[in-house]
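Quick review question:
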């Protein structure tokens, strides 16, 4: 049983996928910080902070394109050509994921009497940097995250169920990082359920169409709605 499970994993591609995620989350940000320090650019300054984040996005996209450029352009052409079908699936899985997230979030918030740290952080960022947030959260973020947490692992797992479980949990776990502070409250771990659940539906959209832009579009729909609601509410 265990041997069969491991036979379903391509460890070379799994290692590459993890390395790319580490590059995005740790290596590239650290390089940018070192570069800005070398030029005495203080990240406490809001304009410098935004510039640093833009650099991180640019370097990450460059890394992604250097690896997946050909397939990304091929899938983009296919998505545009079949937009009616792919777009419909994006909307369907987004709605299913949204309903799951609304229900589970409501239950968890009622239990913990608090928002997910990631959600609270996003709201603060939108209030402080509205223009940058619109671009990063509705376009750049969804594109990068779907490449990293979905397309990145496509060749690593032969079994679709394993692919969905692993990528969903990884996606959800990364969104909990904002809660890992010195004031960490264990109940924040409950928010792994809605975030991973939404990741599951994004993964389904990707697998069903074999086109990463189907999940990217669904992700963009969700983030756009979230940003608009914060801006209207603010």
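Suggested answer, residue by residue:
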């Amino acid at each position: 049983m265990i041997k069969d499970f491991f036979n379903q994993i391509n460890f070379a591609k799994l290692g590459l996928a993890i390395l790319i995620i580490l590059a995005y989350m740790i290596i590239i940000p650290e390089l940018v910080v070192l570069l800005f320090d070398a030029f005495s650019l203080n990240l406490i300054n809001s304009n410098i902070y935004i510039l640093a984040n833009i650099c991180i996005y640019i370097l990450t996209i460059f890394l992604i394109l250097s690896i997946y450029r050909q397939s990304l352009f091929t899938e983009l052409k296919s998505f545009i050509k079949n937009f009616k079908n792919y777009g419909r699936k994006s909307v369907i899985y987004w709605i299913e994921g949204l309903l799951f997230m609304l229900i589970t979030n409501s239950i968890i918030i009622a239990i913990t009497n608090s928002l997910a740290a990631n959600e609270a952080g996003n709201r603060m960022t939108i209030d402080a940097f509205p223009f940058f947030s619109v671009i990063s959260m509705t376009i750049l973020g969804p594109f990068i995250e779907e490449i990293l947490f979905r397309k990145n692992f496509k060749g690593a797992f032969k079994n679709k169920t394993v692919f969905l479980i692993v990528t969903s949990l990884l996606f959800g776990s990364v969104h909990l990082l904002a809660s890992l502070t010195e004031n960490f409250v264990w109940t924040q771990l409950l928010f792994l359920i809605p975030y991973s659940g939404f990741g599951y539906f994004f993964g389904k959209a990707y697998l069903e169409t074999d086109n990463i832009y189907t999940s990217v579009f669904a992700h963009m729909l969700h983030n756009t709605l979230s940003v608009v609601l914060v801006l209207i509410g603010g």
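Why it works: Residues 46-81 form the longest helix (36 residues). The chain has one domain: 2-233.
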